[in-house]
Amino acid sequence: MGTVLVRNVVTNVVGRGSSIVAWLAITPYVLHTLGPEKFGYWSLLSALASTAVLLDLGLGSAVTRFVAGVAGEGEHEARQGALTTGALVAVVLALLWSVAGLLGRGALLAFAHVNGDWRGEATASAGTAVLAAGVGVLALVPNAALTGVHRLDLVNRVAIAATVVQVGGSLWFLARGAGLQGLALALLLANVTTLVASVVLLRRVAPALTLEPRTATWERVKAQARFSAALQVIGLGVLFQFQLPKFVLARFVNLAAAGEYELAYRVAFAAWSLPSLLLPPLLPALAEWAAQGRWEAAWALHDRAARYLLALAVPLAALLAAGSPALYRAWLGPGHGSAAISLTVLMTLLGINVTTSAGALFVRAIGRPWIEARYHIVSFALQLLLAAWLVPKAGLPGALLAMLVSGLAGTVLFLWMFHRALGRPLRTFVLEIALRPLMVACIAGALAFAVGGACVAAPWGAGRAGALVALVLGTLAGGAAGVAGALWLGIVTRAELTDVARRIPGAMGLR
């Protein structure tokens, strides 16, 4: 299992990382080609496409959990039932989403105040994006089943292929003047690629795992529905936590403001994918061990994953928060102060909220996701109230403050509920796992800010080239401090790093 986990983590980072790097590379071209207003509208369409995947009734995680959780001998019919139930739900959801999205295009244009000579383009691209989202929902099922049989490496190969299709298609369509409709068509082609490739690979690696309607019993449907309902609440919570600012800015301010937030959102979650990708490969392993009653091994994996995650994620959040002004000046030039401020707030919240990540994965794996869902309900309600009050008065700062306050409150609530419900001491988690990474992050962020600020203040620090130098030197200084602090404080030991490095070649089939 150790080698499989390493393989899945490494391929997850490579697969998702390639997608992120590609989109960061072409974003300046997309922004320049579309302009601020259309780019802001495209950010809304992208968010709605993501919403379709999040509004999946917890489909993906449920299929993964039930396929992995019944992986023992003699459970073939149960695994078929999990896959078949998920496929039936996916078809219904895809149809509902497609019909509702096509009928609701006019409401979206009115919501975003889209007028003028590009209204027809906006309507057509919204329709294509809706169809692409429906295909994306269907693709969740074979993807999740591959993850459940511990073949996340294949999932990420599919992701790389889909990225090539979407990025290449986007550039090709934009170069020929297709605009928003071209971007939506590229998204549709990428999701079709994902669906077809995932089905083919699942048939190859798990030929016995097929759709069998008789296995979708009412009892199995109810079991997956109970689990999925909590995951749907969680998905909505994640959606509103970080996407709500985009929509309220488009409604109460303008599309250009939503576009500035989108620039921050893309960078934040591009960087955040690196630490967050450590966790998905652990879900099938934890679910399998929980089903087998191997609780000591499951808790040991939770604690080790939390240490590794915090050691990487919290200093990374501090470095990005400290370097955000230099980053946008070097990447896009002057005039993106709102994006820099948004990124600082996003990374501050993510750096604190990541303390919930290992626990959230654990409760999903053991079949108790409502512990996580309850905190999202509270956080969402608080953010909605604060946003309704603050955004009309303060614009972007109001949206960011509502997101930050509600996110911090939700984080504290989850940590308390998780440790109380599972009989684990919260004090031990804070002092032995969370405190040292937070200390390292403060030192790394402060050093990066000081070095970067000194470079910008120098005579040669003006302009994009100077901002790039400030960003690189500040990141190197802060990163070195973070690595040294993690090793010195024992957050991650040299022996653990050596063990992981030793497993990588075998996990990747290089020996």
Low-confidence stretches: none
- Distinct helical segment count: 19
SS strand fraction: under 5%
Helical content, roughly?
Answer: over 70%
Order of helices and strands: HHHHHHHHHHHHHHHHHHH
Number of strands: 0
In angstroms, what separates the terminal alpha carbons? 17 Å
Largest sheet: none
Q: What would you call the shape? A: globular
The class by helix and strand makeup works out as mainly alpha
Mean pLDDT: 81
Topology summary:
Layout: H1 2-34, H2 36-54, H3 59-69, H4 76-103, H5 105-111, H6 119-148, H7 152-175, H8 179-205, H9 218-252, H10 255-276, H11 282-291, H12 295-332, H13 337-353, H14 357-365, H15 370-394, H16 396-421, H17 426-457, H18 463-488, H19 494-507
Features:
single chain, mainly alpha, 511 residues, 85% helix
Description:
The protein is globular. It has helices at 2-34, 36-54, 59-69, 76-103, 105-111, 119-148, 152-175, 179-205, 218-252, 255-276, 282-291, 295-332, 337-353, 357-365, 370-394, 396-421, 426-457, 463-488, 494-507. The two termini are 17 Å apart. The model has no long low-confidence stretch (mean pLDDT 81). With 511 residues, it is mainly α.
Structure described in brief:
The chain has 511 residues and is an all-alpha fold. It is built from 19 helices and no strands.
